[in-house]
């Protein structure tokens, strides 16, 4: 990667606004993040996290504001911007009738990877995510945690600079949840990828480089987990989050639920 690419924000969002009819789902959202960072986007249900991710993936256009991926404005450079993006969606997206390997090969073809390069990367990623023994198994036979690992491997095949993970641990058992989170946290050591991790689970943001608190379409806070605790004059992230948002304990979901 070029020096100026390393210093450039991998994702830069400014003045983002999106309404559904008269309902304002995102209201002037702005933040930046860099490669090597794990950024947690924390917000209760309905905060606007999925809407934000739909805009970041070009699914639909914002009413106002700009999104830049490595400096590329996706309004004018959508294809180039999306080529730098890996996504793990909240809803499972594997073809359950295909084998693990075929799911990955299909994605590699979509990204136009030459077959020999695709074979090499698939092999590397299956090893890295401890899936090599399952390569010939149909996705249907995999546990929820393993399916998520396949989706994660798939999202990295084209070597993106930015990985978006939308509530990636929802529905997983506690051990699989921890496994996925730890794998992502380890990846930041490579310094090649920025990860935007959306969640409504406060315990998933403890080790983030930065936390963005989104509530009712607005950014209430952005900074480190320690700064979040300081801002909320609280000992825990959960307490700080509740103070900032004014919610009661009930809004904090039980992990694994
Ligand atoms: N297509 C739509 N039409 C109308 N309102 C919508 C639509 N999609 C989302 N909303 C509303 O916009 C707000 C933000 O929704 P969004 O799904 O982005 O939030 P979220 O933080 O991802 O929540 P969740 O964790 O529940 O998915 C919610 O109040 C939701 O009801």
Automatic annotation (TrEMBL):
<dbReference type="GO" id="GO:0016887">
    <property type="term" value="F:ATP hydrolysis activity"/>
</dbReference>
<dbReference type="InterPro" id="IPR027417">
    <property type="entry name" value="P-loop_NTPase"/>
</dbReference>
<dbReference type="InterPro" id="IPR050763">
    <property type="entry name" value="ABC_transporter_ATP-binding"/>
</dbReference>
<dbReference type="Pfam" id="PF00005">
    <property type="entry name" value="ABC_tran"/>
</dbReference>
<dbReference type="InterPro" id="IPR017871">
    <property type="entry name" value="ABC_transporter-like_CS"/>
</dbReference>
<dbReference type="InterPro" id="IPR022467">
    <property type="entry name" value="ABC_transprt_ATP-bd_su_PQQ"/>
</dbReference>
<dbReference type="GO" id="GO:0005524">
    <property type="term" value="F:ATP binding"/>
</dbReference>
<keyword id="KW-0813">Transport</keyword>
<keyword id="KW-0547">Nucleotide-binding</keyword>
<keyword id="KW-0536">Nodulation</keyword>
<comment type="similarity">
    <text>Belongs to the ABC transporter superfamily.</text>
</comment>
<dbReference type="InterPro" id="IPR003593">
    <property type="entry name" value="AAA+_ATPase"/>
</dbReference>
<keyword id="KW-0067">ATP-binding</keyword>
<feature type="domain" description="ABC transporter">
    <location>
        <begin position="11"/>
        <end position="241"/>
    </location>
</feature>
<protein>
    <submittedName>
        <fullName>ATP-binding cassette domain-containing protein</fullName>
    </submittedName>
</protein>
<dbReference type="InterPro" id="IPR003439">
    <property type="entry name" value="ABC_transporter-like_ATP-bd"/>
</dbReference>
């Amino acid at each position: 990667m070029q020096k100026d690419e390393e210093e450039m924000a991998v994702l830069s969002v400014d003045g983002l606004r999106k309404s559904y009819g008269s309902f304002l789902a995102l209201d002037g959202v702005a933040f930046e993040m860099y490669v090597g960072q794990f950024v947690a986007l924390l917000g209760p249900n309905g905060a606007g996290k999925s809407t934000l991710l739909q805009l970041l993936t070009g699914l639909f256009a914002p009413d106002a504001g700009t999104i830049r991926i490595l400096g590329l404005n996706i309004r004018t450079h959508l294809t180039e911007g999306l080529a730098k993006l890996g996504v793990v969606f909240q809803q499972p997206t594997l073809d359950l009738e295909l084998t693990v390997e075929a799911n990955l090969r299909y994605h590699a073809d979509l990204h136009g990877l030459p077959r020999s390069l695709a074979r090499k990367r698939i092999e590397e990623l299956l090893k890295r995510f401890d899936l090599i023994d399952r390569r010939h198994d149909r996705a249907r036979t995999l546990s929820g945690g393993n399916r998520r690992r396949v989706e994660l491997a798939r999202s990295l095949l084209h070597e993106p600079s930015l990985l978006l993970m939308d509530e990636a641990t929802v529905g997983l058992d506690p051990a699989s949840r921890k496994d996925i989170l730890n794998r992502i946290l380890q990846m930041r050591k490579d310094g090649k990828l920025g990860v935007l991790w959306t969640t409504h689970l406060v315990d998933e943001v403890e080790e983030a480089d930065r936390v963005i608190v989104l509530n009712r379409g607005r950014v209430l806070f952005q900074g480190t987990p320690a700064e979040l605790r300081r801002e909320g004059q609280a000992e825990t992230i959960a307490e700080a989050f509740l103070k900032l948002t004014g919610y009661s304990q009930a809004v904090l979901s039980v992990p694994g639920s």
